[in-house]
Description:
By secondary structure, this protein is α+β, with helices and mostly antiparallel strands. Helices cover 45% and strands 15% of the residues. A hairpin with a 3-residue loop joins β1 and β2 (110-116). The model has no long low-confidence stretch (mean pLDDT 84).
Amino acid sequence: MPGYMEGYGTGDERRGLWIKRVIFIGIPALIIAFGAFFYFRTWSQERTMSRFVEALEQQKYDEAYGMWCNAQHPCRNYPSDKFKEDWGPTGLYSKASQLKVETVDFCDSEVVFQYNYPNSEPFGLSVERATNVISFFPYPRCPGKHLQIGTFLKRLFG
């Protein structure tokens, strides 16, 4: 019976090593993946809105209107003249550099950006997720409850 107790406890050591790996590698990986998902899920729409604001700042109104309306998504109720009246040099939102994004809401088929502009009520612009077409949103934010992790972190850490 010399080899009777030689393998005793090796299964417990392997299980303990596996548990340590899960704790020290798996959980941080899940946290990073969760954070990356929430950070990058609106990445394309945020880039579209920043290009839109840049085009307005550089007074490239036709380019900005192309992000609003295009051949695939024509705007019958918002012609180019009305767009330039709103966003042009004499319009209500003429100084695009003063547009401030307050919140970004992830809705079902679109991402809604709540903008604040001096001497104006907050308003919402939406970007359709499938096509990245910009439009006005009827409310400043998506209706319903929101998980505002970014707002919470900004409030917590300044």
